[in-house]
Amino acid sequence: MRDTLYVPPMTMATIAVDAGEAARWMLHCHHMPHLSTGMMTEFVVTA
């Protein structure tokens, strides 16, 4: 199982997720300058 995906600039990626439990999950960029300018989002899994 992999938890990091490289997405080159100006491209898109499709992922399949088995969240396993109800929770708020964060998707974010691992480059701190990008993260600090808002390159993150979340999705919410509800029971």
UniProtKB/TrEMBL annotation:
Residues in Plastocyanin-like domain copies: 2-46
- Classification via Gene3D superfamilies: Cupredoxins - blue copper proteins (2.60.40.420)
Q: Which Pfam families match?
A: Cu-oxidase_2
Superkingdom, natural source: Bacteria
Q: Which UniProt keywords apply?
A: Metal-binding
Q: Which GO terms describe its molecular function?
A: copper ion binding; oxidoreductase activity
Q: Which residues cross the membrane?
A: none
Name of this protein? Plastocyanin-like domain-containing protein
The species this protein was found in: Pelagibacterium lentulum
